[in-house]
Amino acid sequence: MSTREQDLQEIRAAVGKLCADYPGEYWRALDRERRYPTEFVRALTEAGYLSCLIPEQYGGSGLGLSFAAAILEEVQASGANGAATHAQMYIMGTLLRHGTEAQKRAYLPKIATGELRLQAFGVTEPTAGTDTASIRTTAVRRGDQYIVNGQKVWTSRAEHSDLMLLLARTTPRDQAAKKTDGMSVFLVDMRAALGHGLTIRPIRTMINHSTTEVFFDNMAVPAENLIGAEGRGFRYILDGMNAERILIAAECVGDARWFIEKAKNYAVERKVFGRAIGQNQGIQFPIARAYMAMRAAALMVEKACDLYEHGRPCGAEANMAKQLAAEASWQAADMCMQTHGGFAFAEEYDVERKFRETRLYQIAPISTNLVLSYLAEHVLGLPRSY
Hints:
The chain has 386 residues and is α+β, with helices and mostly antiparallel strands. It contains twelve helices and ten strands. It folds into three domains: 3-117, Acyl-CoA dehydrogenase/oxidase, N-terminal domain (Butyryl-Coa Dehydrogenase, subunit A, domain 1), CATH 1.10.540; 119-231, Beta Barrel (Butyryl-CoA Dehydrogenase, subunit A, domain 2); 235-379, Butyryl-CoA Dehydrogenase, subunit A, domain 3, CATH 1.20.140. It has helices spanning 3-19, 24-33, 38-46, 65-77, 86-98, 101-113, 190-193, 233-269, 281-309, 315-340, 351-359, 368-379, and strands at residues 118-122, 138-142, 145-153, 163-169, 183-189, 198-202, 212-222, 226-227, 271-272, 275-276. A four-stranded mixed β-sheet has the order 1-4-5-8. It has a four-stranded antiparallel β-sheet with strand order 2-3-7-6, with no helix packed on it. α4 (65-77) runs parallel beside α8 and α10 (315-340) runs antiparallel to α11 (351-359). It is globular.
């Protein structure tokens, strides 16, 4: 076993041990009350896991995406929900790769210690959806500021984050050479902006995801908070989107592991007609199929991580990892529900909560249809469908 593999095993074990302090009862209470897992996030931060991608010179661990993926996979496999924390990891890439040295020194050390939270990603809009090039939020340069107007939706964790990575149009779409030109990325200090042009409204959903819609009304952002060059923001966030898809895929693998373990244990313990239900192939085979799907998805996550870490193109692999892992977790979730029968609907088993949570990833952060369209056009060479 290589040193890297040993390090990954050790970090997985350590994350699992931390998560054991936050059992099902903790997550059930949060789910009922729609509360943010403040204590859990604090524990992950203090243990240094949320700063694993931040280079050591800025106070982080300087680890690769594989370690971030391992951390989030173990969080999900423990029965917890990493949705409260994962954005800080995948947003980080845009700041790390395209931010100035001054921006990195100003923000990264405080993010590493937990003094600042970077958990909000302002991209999706009500009228644009996943057609990012059609966003309408604008940022107009006025002196040493940009004035932002518009709206974002599904901006999760905005109420629990200090900073937001925001994508806005700095050049109207009809004046840009290409539809993906003319968009810029800003690092918004929401503490200063809240009540001064920034309004956050929570959206209640079927899962406890702390999601919101965000409104900008002449919100001022210092020009020094522009990330990279003006007009090149779409290219910058692609790095973050690939990292997002890979990390979400790792979470789905973790979810699948949790469902499989839960179903396996129940199938051994539950006895009907004088025998364990796990003796029945009608129970065994779906568990085995879910396990195969999970292992296959995990291999694609590993491949995507490797490409990303070596700076090689990974769009196809990131998309495939996300889709295969989301399908594997949903397959495992459905199997686990069926294995438990009526007890799956009882809150105390945690199955129904995890069932609801993992369903999200068939839709977010990118829909199934767009993944398939991307592969059809960019990998298989079929005509563009949209």
